[in-house]
Specification:
The chain is α/β, with parallel strands linked by helices and 180 residues long. The chain has one domain (8-171): HUPs (Rossmann fold), CATH 3.40.50.620. 31% of the residues lie in helices and 21% in strands. The chain contains five helices and nine strands, in the order βαβαβαβββαββαβ. Strands 3-2-1-4-7-8-9 form a seven-stranded mixed sheet, with helices on both faces. The longest helix has 19 residues, at 62-80. Mean pLDDT is 87; it is low at 175-180.
């Protein structure tokens, strides 16, 4: 059986208590394992219930791009504290294609996401369904606490490498939901 070797951790920025927990977990794992942490932020909210395929990509001016990237860096530079092995990427494309491109470019091998609510969405589908279907190890933090993470089936293969105790780890259980 082939297993993924985690060399870089990806975190999708989310401005919430659960986002702070997810960032802290991603940072802690990166520090503990001496890995790079890459923080991704999207021009369009990936936590929207709207399918990103339906969102028209509108051109964003250079000033807006610079402002958004500066905000991203300032927020997470401060949160990273003394940990300096952090990269930042402002993602221009809507959704899955951009995230998959970053994965293919080896910008992360483990993805950490905030789960802000029990019925949260990510890239147009329930966050649990997204995580379970995403090809790389994916960990969800929240919604009710930071001490129990939910992981997709591929993350189980790297749990020992990450040194996350079994009692802090739960499998994602997706439930079929009727499409509206």
């Amino acid at each position: 059986m082939t297993t993924t070797r985690v060399e870089k951790i990806g975190y999708c920025a989310h401005d919430s208590k659960q986002g702070d927990w997810a960032f802290e977990l991603a940072k802690t794992l990166a520090q503990r394992l001496d890995l790079q942490l890459n923080v991704f932020s999207f021009l369009h909210d990936p936590y929207s219930r709207q399918d990103p395929k339906g969102i028209e990509s509108s051109p964003v001016g250079e000033e807006e791009l610079v402002r958004r990237e500066r905000e991203l860096r300032l927020r997470y530079d401060d949160a990273a504290g003394e940990f300096v092995n952090v990269g930042f990427k402002l993602c221009h494309d809507n959704g899955w294609a951009e995230l998959h491109r970053c994965l293919c470019n080896r910008e992360f091998q483990l993805l950490v996401l905030a789960k802000p609510s029990g019925d949260a969405y990510f890239l147009g589908k329930s966050i649990d369904a997204f995580a379970e279907s995403f090809i790389c190890p994916t960990i969800l933090v929240g919604p009710d606490g930071k001490d129990l993470v939910h992981a997709n089936h591929t993350a189980e293969m790297v749990r020992e490498q990450l040194r996350v105790p079994q009692e802090s780890w739960a499998e994602i259980r997706t439930v079929a939901r009727p499409e509206n």
